[in-house]
Amino acid sequence: MVSVIIRNHNERDYIGFAIQSVLNHIPNAEILVIDDHSTDDSLDVVRLFMNRGDIKILKIDDYTPGKSINYGVGIASYETILVLSAHSQITKMDLGYVQSLLKFHSAVFGNQTPIYRGKEISKRYIWSHFVDNEVVNMHSTIEDRPFLHNAFCFYNKSELMEIPFDENLPGKEDRYWAIDILKEGKSYLYTPKIEVNHYYTGNGATWKGLG
User: Fold this and answer.
1) Is the C-alpha dihedral spanning 129, 133, 134, 135 positive or negative?
2) CB under 8 Å, gap of 24 or more: what pairs does 97-105 form?
């Protein structure tokens, strides 16, 4: 069983695709939508799925990426946690394989195909990290630091309770968590055997440069 954390702020155009892809690829998942005071009708979209599975809407004040994930982790019912971007759509999944990897790694993140207005774009810049082979403790030469990405990443709840995300960071909480994990002598893994489409949004941090 898996608890899926989806952070939402005015994601009406894509959050339905994210939720439907969870329902299609992860049977009986618990879906926790952490909402940052959305002013669009994205929560109406979420409510369309309420009769399809175990879906909860949770409000959060003083949002930061790390705070929202930590909040969801504290509520999550299951040991396997998936952090999924509201504008990512799962296209390939092998849950049994991922859970076998989590016995040896603190996190497992998957491949991403960047989609700009319906078009698959070349994997340049930040997207060049999503390669065709598995990588342990991926290091970014672009950012000059460990590379982990929370648009599509699995964790053990027990690990996140022990080492939570930094709630003071405005972004890139995943990279700094990876640094903390490595300091503890632990590891994380990138695998292309699971995959999402990552859709362009004007406010998407991944699309805006390095940060």
Assistant:
1) negative
2) 97/191, 97/193, 97/194, 98/154, 98/191, 98/194, 101/189, 101/191, 102/154, 102/155, 102/156, 104/187, 105/136, 105/186, 105/187, 105/188, 105/189
Measured between alpha carbons, how far is 11 from 179 in angstroms, rounded to an integer?
A: 29
- Averages of pLDDT over each 10 residues, the chain, 211 residues: 96 96 96 96 96 94 95 97 97 97 98 92 90 97 95 97 95 96 97 96 55 31
- The predicted pLDDT at position 117 comes to 87
DSSP string, 96-142: HHHHHHTTT-SEEEEEEEEEETTEE----GGGGG--SS-EES-EETT
| Other CB atoms within 10 Å distance of the CB of residue 202 | 6
Side-chain half-sphere exposure of 131, counting CA atoms within 13 A = 11
pLDDT at residue 142, as a whole number: 92
For position 203, what pLDDT does the model report?
60
Q: Which two tokens stand for residue 45?
A: 């979209």
pLDDT at position 210 is: 33
